[in-house]
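Why run this: before we spend reagent on co-expression, it is cheaper to look at a predicted model of the complex and decide which construct boundaries make sense. The entries below are exactly what would go into the expression plan.
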Amino acid sequence: MPQGYWSPVLHAHLPYVRHPEYPEFLEEDWFFEALTETYVPLVRVLDGLLRDGVDYRLTMTLSPPLLAMMSDGLLVERYHRYLDRLVTLAEKEISRTAREDQRFHDVTRFYLGEFTDIRRVFREVYGSNLIQAFRNHRDAGKLEIITCGATHGFLPLMDTVPEAVRAQVQIAVGHYRELLGRDPAGIWLPECGYLPGQDRFLREAGLRFSFIESHGVTDAHPRPSHGVLAPIISPEGIAFFARDMESSRQVWSAESGYPGDNDYREFYKDVGWELPVDYLGEILPDGMRKNVGLKYYRVTGKVGLQDKQPYVREWALGKAASHAGNFLENRQRQVLAHAPRMSQPPLVVSPYDAELFGHWWYEGPDFLNFLFRKMHFDQDVVKPVTPPQFLDMHPDCEVAQPPFCTWGARGYAEVWLNPGNDWIYPHLDVAAERMVELARRFEWPSPLERRALDQAARELLLAQSSDWAFIMKTGTTVEYAKKRTRDHVARFTYLYRALTGETMLEEPIVRDFEWRDNLFPQIDYRVYK
Amino acid sequence: MAKQANGPPDSVRAGARAASGRGTTGASTATPTPRARRRSPAATSSPAPAEPKKSSVAIRAANPKSPRPPRQTKSSAPEPETGGTAQAGQGALSLSEEEQIGSAKYLPRDLPPRVFEEERFIFPETYGVNRVRLLVKDPHWLFAHWDVDPRVREGLRREKGERIAVLARLTLRLTDDHGGIGGATVLPEGARSWYLRAVPGHRSYRVELGITLPSGEYRSLARSNAVATPRTGPSPEKARRRASYRLAAKGAPLAAAADIAPEPQAAPRRRAAKGAPGTAPAARAAGTEPVSANEPAPGSEPGGASDLFRR
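The model came back. Tokens follow.
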């Protein structure tokens, strides 16, 4: 009998980026990079665990935009092209490094093997349908797949239009049912953003559990007895699991966390910025530099980028195994310290962005692989669990009301509401109100009106994605985030004006919008009623 | 009627979908498309220096544009089309370590100028209605944004004359659940949103948008939804009630919820919230003026899910 449990949660999400109007589009790489470095490697790890009889347990969000991109024919086709180019470049690099730079020859051979295997798993094992891979693990009872807001809209800032909050939840649940064949039991609130009262929409949608930041439980009213180490139930009847900061920091922190170790791969030094453009060839469309996924250096230490040392794969794997052991030891200590004072076994909940594992921390999937194996074979003190499994074992929870909280900087909304991005909210708010107005106004739309109404809902949802506000704050690809906000509000506004008689409703325009923004083909605008 | 700054989308004029164009091009390699293009502001800056010719393909020693982790937060200017957005009480923006890492999903930064195919659209200066909405940023700050029917100024001009109409200022009055007026903020011309100081600790607020005439006369235009600042710190009351998840999972709100005593709100203060730093002194608030036609009728105030919770 274990003394306590550990519940790892990987939140996998990317905004819906798909540009059929361009033959190539830089931001589509976000999805391709995440597939290559995170999602396929994770599937490969989970497959191995299942094959070897390791009783792992994992909870993963597959956000609706991510599921939609995984099942989109155009993006899958472009991903094949992306993988083929990577393999071609790796082959070229093996020749070049053998001839000119022996320091990197081993790592280029590693990359060729890796990219070839990623391509094999994606193309041959899963027939380009990665959703099936996750379904297999869910059906094996090891993986709990949860949903998210329909487009990762930040729900606390939508509170002025409750119908918009409801739509984000209802559409997500319907989409999950469509692609994963059953109803989700849990939801990752986008940005871990909880506002009291909004959980009634979760209950209406049949959702039963979610996650909040630590202070969502420690500051709840009345005060829960076991802090973050036990779930609580809100007055709406939703079970909330709080993030454990200790285990989070060990992985998240670039300074004190594992990913900053000197032997791990250096994220920012990529050959896409270093080798000549004409040599890199078609992997740089239009010759514009970008990360291409071949990174030859390790973190090395607190040195300038010019002083980084070559990456040694064996050293990095050794560190991943060692860090997995350290992480497990810390979880054992944690549960042993708290178990005597608790009426039930302590539960440590560790949510992370899934893309942290592999994309940012390249050895992250290897770390998880080692960790689950050590946890299974080497000890009995702490065991992995999913939230529903824990609740089945320990269904009685304290009832408390969490306060408004998020997992953003300082715990509230400032990442998504600050002088760099606050200009979007008046427009999003009006668009949401207008969508509700349209849904109430059109009971019996004509076929064209019906298409326009459904498309208006898609445009609103895409504009609401919290990624745009986040990017405006973090300053990565701000022009693109502004473009997306503008485009979707513009298209919504045209549809609203056409549907309310201010301008002509033209079928070619509706068709054009449907072609560009094809998310949620089964959407029903009446969800906004 | 709202000022409609937007014509139909470009695709209306083009009459066909654009099937070409390069999402990753700079201006020099852009392929003309039927859709109009909108040049990003960055595109007016100097082009990036050309890649130096190399005789070999050896890896460069360093990539000066690739810090790890990205410590500097690039503050992006507000969208230019939106008009002025007044800010108050905003310290330096910073990212948590997790957000710095999270932003790695959206690389690259420091891109050369790009030309996007974009909808030709200018965000409206007004949607033609009197409305104000309130959001909670954190326990200490609220965010109000509003819209004003242009006919308000026109009516004032007809009634009081040009000078009064020009000098009249939009005003926000913050009220709390205890009926107290937390403070009034006379807004600078052109502001469309404002951050307001709040008292943390489960305290409910609304804001009223009005217009203050040079005489001090105040006219209400719209009232916001209600919001509550979150409680901070552990509750003094220890949880006693337990409920079964199995019962909760059946889909109804917990009966046990009724046993949670409502949390007392923070005690009212005479001046619960002040106008944002750096603003004009609070306007004299007569509070006796009739509300406008846009004022929601009692019982039909705009509100959110959290209002439902509080009710």
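Strands of chain A lie at 4-12, 58-62, 143-148, 186-188, 209-212, 232-233, 239-242, 347-353, 382-384, 396-399. Residues 87 and 116 of chain A are 6 Å apart (CA to CA). Bring this page to Monday's planning discussion.
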